Give the backbone structure.
Amino acid sequence: SRHSRVVMFNHTARSILGRSFARRSASTIADIRARSHVLGGEAASPEVLKTFEIWHDAVAEMADDSVSDGTIQAFRECVDENVVFSPPTYFKPWEGRDEFMVLIECVGEVFGPSFTYGRQWLSPCGREWALEFKADIGDSGRSVDGIDLVSLDESGRIVDFKVLARPPNAVAALKDAMMRKVPPRLAMMKAKQAVGGMGKLFA
């Protein structure tokens, strides 16, 4: 059908775009602007630009349902251990890199290939991002519009990640979808942490 062909085209295009981020090294802000709708970042450091590109690579692979261990590890290294994540589906923010990674992977599964970034703004230093996005909420029939507000430290690690989204019925559908995925993943993460802690105790 026409719809399936459009989805397949978008799916492939995002995959190619994401992998192009991974292959390029030492990109300048001009390189990034040539490949996406990015404004600002004139004085961004190489560390900040690297995090920006790795994040886009991870997003593209999540949309493509082909996230590699290498990409996950590369992105994880761009996230501060005490990162604060404030999604629109929870009243209180989440703190911690492990929790952040679980939530990001789950929301990537919910959005699937429908997730796309539009306009993107960086502060002159590149350490503050405002990234406009659109996505469908699984098979709920709802679509969400939102903005990712991201703050980085001087070394280029993500320290704060806030998501603003609308309309309310789409946010409610997103919360329902996340509630089916997040609790068992968090429980598994906690179990692995407990096992790891026991291993260190007896090492």
Notes: Strands lie at 38-40, 79-86, 94-95, 116-122, 128-136, 143-152, 158-166. Residues 168-201 form the longest helix (34 residues).
